[in-house]
């Protein structure tokens, strides 16, 4: 991780952001020893960097487990960069209510140039491993991914779809296209265990006044508890919440 000194650059800043890069590249919270192993920074110096980055809210330290993840400031920067900060702010109270009502995890996914990512999560069970965290890219076969495949502007998702489907058979592609037609009709999608065994999800789209897709709300939890049809109680609840949130952005 050590870089050659450059009079036009600040080495300590490079190292600090390098630590952030290491943590961002992992799909799980990292312990101090893991970060040190990947960064090759001495314990005393790494402690100072982590303490500073945590103080600046670029990283978050879970005091109970002693692990590090990306901090709220990084998330704010990311949302500002993709123009979604207002969406996150307005949707967060609904995530809290969804999680409270269902006792499951609720998340907001938004589009980026490389596919859908999780912009915010609200969990009723902090110990539940859903296989993802804020900033995680979601595959096309996740319920969130299916929403973007069904409703987002085709030109914007063409490259992403081609990459995700590159090893699919013709039959698999045909079945997926049929499924997306049903999602467009019902305005809700489902996925059984797309990331972690026994963990499934259901998603609904969020639209603006111009009927453009803003993002999607997703409910995640143990498979037997997650709705699998639009007629389920939680399925209806998600659909009603989708209409309410979309209404805030002028959708009719």
From TrEMBL:
Coiled-coil residue spans: none
GO biological process per UniProt: negative regulation of DNA-templated transcription
Secretion signal, residue range per the UniProt entry: none
Organism annotation: Peribacillus asahii
SMART domains listed in its UniProt record: HTH_ICLR (SM00346)
Keyword RNA-binding: no
Domain (HTH iclR-type): residue spans on this chain: 10-72
Protein name (database record): IclR family transcriptional regulator
GO MF annotation list: DNA binding; DNA-binding transcription factor activity
Key words of the record: DNA-binding, Transcription, Transcription regulation
Domain (IclR-ED) ranges: 73-251
Pfam families (alphabetical): HTH_IclR, IclR_C
InterPro entries to which the protein is assigned, alphabetical: GAF-like_dom_sf, HTH_MetabolicPath_Reg, Tscrpt_reg_IclR_C, Tscrpt_reg_IclR_N, WH-like_DNA-bd_sf, WH_DNA-bd_sf
PANTHER family: HELIX-TURN-HELIX TRANSCRIPTIONAL REGULATOR, ICLR FAMILY, TRANSCRIPTIONAL REGULATORY PROTEIN
Keyword DNA-binding: yes
Database matches in PROSITE patterns: HTH_ICLR (PS51077), ICLR_ED (PS51078)
